[in-house]
Amino acid sequence: MYFSRVRVKPDIRELSHLHTILRGDGYSIHQLLWDLFPGDQTRRFLFREEIAGEQIPHYRGARGEPIFYLVSQNEPKNEHPLFILESKPYNPKFTAGDQLSFKLRANPTVARKENGRKNSVRHDVVMDVQYRYLRELAHAAEVKNLCKKSDLKKLILESWLESKDAGIRVKLEQTIEVNERYRELLDETLSPAKLFESALKAASDSQLEEWLCDKGKKNGFVIVTDERQKRLKFQAEGYRWYAMPRKGRTAGFSSADFEGEIKVTDPMRFIDALYKGVGSAKAFGCGLMLVKRV
């Protein structure tokens, strides 16, 4: 296996808007990076996009252009006219109990059987939990949940402000209370709108934590617990939805950036996950886990 860093050549960056056109278009980037593997039809590589100015600030002229990290089965060829390629063999070795810091951009989804369908349907974790949570709140607030999510949020909040139903506040506070990373918000005086949004974020964060813990069980790692704060050393940020109009009006995928500390429980399965990626949407820049020892 090989680990590579790929930069846009400075003269290309200055003479074109290629990086602007490609930003956020994971599939086109995958196709472009695939050119680093002439003759390889397997597409066996993972990649992650970052901003050069943040990753290599010591490089003169590094700005907002993309920089890519790759893990590949075959060695990429340093023959592409657009890129500067730095590559080295990648053969990580771990033992059970090793603790590592990690970064992971992943596509968190959940599979669920639906009425009338033979196979399970994949749902975006954040959208799924928020919509289910809003339906529960709509039932409690006696609001019909027949509209899209943004309108439903507005209707629930308006109904709650009008009725001043204490039960809604209790439910929102309970959702925040069970998430250690959001619990301290309850020490503040939150407006109804802020409390409502905080509860939605806490519910999403809890579901992302559950998703990552489940992936850890399958891939040979667990998230480390902060004994002082009594919570997992983990955070999820940068949730984003990418529309794919070429595949349909509602087509798209999401990504979230996870980081924190993990402990290796099964070295073989964990190394396999580093090679093969975690989660889905790997062709769109998701799944590559970056790790280093702590």
Describe it for me?
The chain is built from nine helices and 13 strands. With 294 residues, it is an alpha+beta fold. It folds into two domains: 90 residues, no CATH class; 193 residues, Crispr-associated protein, domain 2 (Alpha-Beta Plaits), CATH 3.30.70. The strands form four sheets. Strands 5, 8, 11, 12 and 13 form a five-stranded antiparallel β-sheet that branches. It starts with a strand and ends with a strand. The model has no long low-confidence stretch (mean pLDDT 86).
Map the helices and strands.
Elements: E1 2-8, H1 10-15, H2 18-22, H3 26-34, E2 45-51, H4 52-55, E3 66-72, E4 83-89, E5 99-106, E6 109-112, E7 121-124, H5 125-140, H6 149-163, H7 166-177, H8 192-219, E8 221-223, E9 225-226, E10 231-232, E11 234-243, E12 252-264, H9 267-276, E13 289-293
Antiparallel strand pairs: 1-3, 1-4, 2-3, 5-12, 5-13, 6-7, 8-12, 9-10, 11-12
Helix pairs in contact: 5-6, 5-8, 7-8
